[in-house]
Amino acid sequence: MLDDQSVTQDSYHHGNVKEALIDAALRLIESNQEGAMSLRRLSREVGITAPAVYNHFADKEALMIAIKVRIYGSFNKYFEERITGSDDPEKTLKEMCFAYYHFSRDFPSQFHFLFASAIPMDWTTPEHIEISGQCIVKTRKVVLDIYKKYQIPCDQHAVVNTTLLIWSQLHGIVTLRNSGMIQAAVTYQDWPDSCSLEHGEQVESLIENHIQIMVGGIINSAHKDHHH
Question: What's the CA gap between 73 and 103, in Å, rounded?
């Protein structure tokens, strides 16, 4: 084993060891071996002594934060590449929701890792808070723009509540679809094949319906408030 300060042609430079450890962790996640992840295992993967890992991560919790930061960076970039910059906030919201679904399909292990385990507040870091919140911050702005589009007065409570409803229902659609439970209901409980969500266009159609219902709810709530 090599100490990570050792410099040979085949070893990692000291500054690269932290990234190499995260790379090794991501390989375990991608091969569904997350449960086997340990600092000792990763030190073997990278080729450094086990104690040298602690030069970069104080404990496994610090490693988990670093992995999530890396994945959220990819997650945010994935979104940026799929948002066209339309002036119509409803179109932007649809693009964001589609991107959320497609990321879950293109990178299922990473998606599961992001959302399957919570990070206690005393573990988190400013970098993690900033990068993990980028998507929801943008969604909140788009929701506010929808209120403005229809000239509907709102406060921050209404905007945040609507954002949470959109996000939680979208996550439910994506999670149920990816779990296979909906396909099982079609097979064993006589659900229509058209509801199987087996094909991407079926999922996108359901997501579009979801957005239309949410926007309709925003508009209807304004009408109710007006009549009161």
Answer: 13
